[in-house]
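REQUEST FORM: STRUCTURE PREDICTION
Request ID: SP-0412
Submitted by: Lab K.M.
Chain count: 1
Length (residues): 476
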Amino acid sequence: MLSTDAIDALIADMWAMHLHERTKLDRIYDYTRGRRGIPQVPDGAGQEIKDLAKLSAKNVVSLVRDSFAQNLSVVGYREASAQENDAAWAQWQRNRMDARQAEAHRAALTYGASYVTVTPSDEGPVLRPRSPRQILSVYEDPQIDAWPQYALETWVDTSDAKPRRKALLYDDEFLYPLDLGEVPGTLTDQHVTGSARGMRVESYGEPIAHGAALAGTPVCPVVRFVNDRDADDLIVGEVEPLLVLQQAINSVNFDRLIVSRFGAFPQKVITGWTAEASEVLKASASRVWTFDDPDTKAFTLTAASVEGYNTLLAEMMEHVAMVAQISPSQVTGKMVNVSAEALAAAEANQQRKLAAKRESFGESWEQVLRLSAEMDGDTATAADSSAEVVWRDTEARSFGAVVDGISKLSSAGVPIESLLSMIPGMSQQQIKAIGDGIRGQRANEIVAAVRDAAARASTDPQVTDLASRRTDAVAE
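STATUS: Completed
RESULT:
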C-alpha cells in the first residue's frame, strides 16, 4: 500500500505528464469538433468576414474517424468451434457494452489510444471506457507491457453544483480515491486545473483492494486500446496525420465563401456620379438609368465563378480519403449506381485497415473479459486463452451472392450455424435463435427416425423372429 507521501509525489509527476499530453490531445479534440483550423483574418476585417471564417470549417477528420468507428462492433466472445458465447460474455451484457464499446473505439481512433478500467462492485466487475484526456497510464516498457504500473483517472464531480476534481490512482493492488480540490473559474469540457508543477491532493479516501489478477498474478486493472501499432511511435491516431490537410480545406472553403458572398453575382458600377444612399438604391433597382453629365458611365462586372474552388475542394477531399485509406464517397458524399462488387473493391483498403484495428482492439477486449472473469471468481474462463471476440461483418457484399455461397458450403457439409454470421445485417440474437431452431429441428428429426425404426422393427416378422431367437439363445 502506498503512503500519502508516495501518493503526493506520484500524483505530482503524473499530473505534469498529463498536462503535457493534454496540449496535443486538446488540439486533436478541437479539430475533431471543428473549433480549430479556422483561417486567420486581418485585424481590421469586418464582422461579416469574421463570421464567414467561422463558417468555413469543413470538418473532414470526424468523417474519417466515424467511417472506421461505425464498422467496429463486437458481437460475441467464444472459441472458433463453440456454438455459445463464453461465460465471460455475461459480464459484457451486464455492463451494456453492446452500446458503450463505441466509447473505447472512437477515443482510440481519435487520439491513438483509449482505456477500459475494470473495478469490483457488489453486482460484479464494472467496465468503464475512458479517453486519454481522462486517464493517464505509465508503463515500465510501453511497447510490450500489457498492464500499466500506475494509472491516474480524473473527472469533475458536480454534486451540489460545486465542481470538484476527483481522481482514482490505480496500482496492482489498490484503488486510491483522491480529492484534488475545487475547479476554479468557468467549467468547460476541456478545463484542466493545476499547474505544470503538479497537482495537490486535498483529501485521501480509504484505499480499496480491487483484487485484479490474471493467472494468479496481480495486475493494474486498466487495459489500453491502441489504434495503430508502430515500434517508433506507439500512439498513432487517425486524426493527427490529417490536421494539415484539414487546415488547407478550411482555407480554400473560406475563399469560396468570400467569392460566393461578394462576387458571385453581377456588380453594377457607375463612374463620375455619386448620390445619397437612397438614390443609389433607387438607381440600382431601375431598369433604365439616365444621367445629365455626359462623362458619367455605367457598366456591369461579370459574376465570379466558384467552380474552380469546387473542383479544388473535391480534389483535396479525395486526397484525404486516399491518405486515410477509406472510400472517397464517405468524405465527398457522392455515390453513383454501382454494383456490390465495385463497392467492395472501392472499400478494399479500408477493410484491410479495419482488419488490423480489429486485431489490436480484439486483443484488448479479450484482456478485459478475462480480467473481469477472474475478478468475478471464474478462474477457468480467465485461464482460457483460446476464446476470441467476434466482430460484426460490415464488408459491402451482395446479399444474394452471400446466400449463394453459404448454400454451396452447407451442401458441401459445413454446418450452416457456423456460416450465419456471414449474412449482412444478421444480429447476434437472430443468429442464436436460428441456430437453436436448427438444432431443435435436427433433434426432432433424429427422435422421429428412431421411433420409425422402432415401429418398423415391431411389425416386421423377420426382425421379430430374429429377436426371439436371440432371446432363446441367451436363456440357454
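NOTES: The first helix runs from residue 4 to 32.
Reviewed by: T.R.
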